[in-house]
């Protein structure tokens, strides 16, 4: 009887030890799996944080570019407001119409400043409208110059950017000669595929004019042509002429005449 009791106690002890060993093994395995899962989630969260940081940096760059375009718009508006005051009285009606349009654009621009991060497309639309009105103002300037010439004021200099001459024919020839003397060596700093234009790091100081045709290169290989629509200080906007170039052009591509 005593032998059976000891035998039962021994078997019970062995079973208890076996259960404890199994429990320790399972606890250790579960702990390792939990640590691995937590580590994996941590790596995933860190990757997501990096992605968010990249997107934030990209958006900050877009906002900076939009702010620069806004500053260029304000500069051009001030320039043409000054020119409007100097134009011939015979164009008062058209001047008033353009002046009202520019004032309306200034009001629209002020309203869009509050929504700048979400309204980049609307700012681009305003930029194109102002470029159109600038072209009309340039046309009025030329008409005013011709009007003064036909009125016996041919000796009065007509000021054009970036040179000063004494008549429309001489102005056109001088602009062509100026363009030939300066070899453009610029780069693409931004590509907007939605509105099909590029931004280059060269402006009116480089001899660029609206409606100039420029060529885009990469490693001396020509990718295509663009047409200059907007010229500012140190930056210009050019429209992409072909869809093949729209798919190919990238930041830091070379731009030349």
A few lines on this structure:
61% of the residues lie in helices and 16% in strands. With 257 residues, the protein is of the alpha+beta class. It is elongated, with a radius of gyration of 35 Å.
Please, could you describe this protein's structure?
The protein is of the alpha+beta class. The protein folds into two domains: 111 residues, no CATH class; 74 residues, Rod shape-determining protein MreC, domain 1 (Thrombin, subunit H, Beta Barrel), CATH 2.40.10.340. Helices cover 61% and strands 16% of the residues. A six-stranded antiparallel barrel has the order 3-4-7-6-5-8. It has a two-stranded antiparallel sheet with strand order 1-2. Strand 6 and strand 7 form a beta hairpin. Helix 1 packs antiparallel against helix 2, helix 1 runs parallel beside helix 3 and helix 2 runs antiparallel to helix 3. The radius of gyration is 35 Å and the shape is elongated. The termini are far apart. 11% of the residues are buried. About 9% of the residues have low confidence.
**Major β-sheet, in short?**
6 strands, antiparallel, barrel
Percent in strands: 15-25%
| Strand element count | 8
State the low-pLDDT regions, or none: 151-168, 177-181
Global outline: elongated
Per DSSP, the total helix count is 5
Overall mean pLDDT stands at 76
Distance linking N and C termini:
111 Å
Across the major sheet, the strand order is: 3-4-7-6-5-8
Q: Could you tell me the radius of gyration in angstroms?
A: 35 Å
Helix content: 55-70%
Structural class: alpha+beta
| Count of domains | 2
The sequence of SSEs as H and E is HHHEEHEEEEEHE
């Amino acid at each position: 009887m005593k032998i059976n009791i000891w035998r039962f106690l021994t078997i019970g002890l062995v079973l208890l030890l076996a259960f404890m060993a199994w429990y320790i093994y399972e606890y250790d395995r579960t702990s390792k799996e939990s640590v691995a899962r937590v580590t994996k989630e941590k790596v995933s969260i860190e990757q997501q944080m990096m992605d968010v940081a990249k997107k934030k940096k990209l958006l900050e760059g877009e906002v900076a570019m939009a702010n620069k375009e806004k500053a260029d718009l304000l500069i051009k508006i001030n320039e043409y407001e000054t020119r409007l005051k100097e134009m011939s009285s015979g164009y008062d009606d058209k001047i008033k119409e353009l002046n009202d349009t520019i004032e309306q654009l200034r009001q629209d621009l002020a309203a869009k400043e509050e929504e700048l991060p979400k309204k980049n497309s609307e700012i681009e639309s305003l930029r194109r409208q102002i470029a159109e009105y600038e072209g009309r103002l340039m046309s009025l300037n030329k008409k005013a110059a011709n009007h003064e010439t036909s009125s016996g004021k041919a000796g009065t200099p007509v000021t054009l950017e970036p040179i000063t001459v004494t008549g429309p024919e001489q102005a056109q020839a001088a602009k062509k000669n100026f363009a030939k003397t300066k070899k453009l060596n610029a780069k693409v700093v931004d590509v907007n595929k939605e509105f099909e234009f590029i931004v280059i790091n060269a402006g009116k100081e480089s001899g660029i004019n609206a409606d100039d045709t420029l060529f885009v290169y990469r490693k001396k290989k020509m990718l295509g042509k663009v047409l200059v629509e907007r010229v500012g200080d140190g930056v210009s906007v050019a429209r992409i002429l072909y869809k093949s170039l729209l798919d190919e052009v990238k930041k830091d591509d070379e731009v030349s005449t």
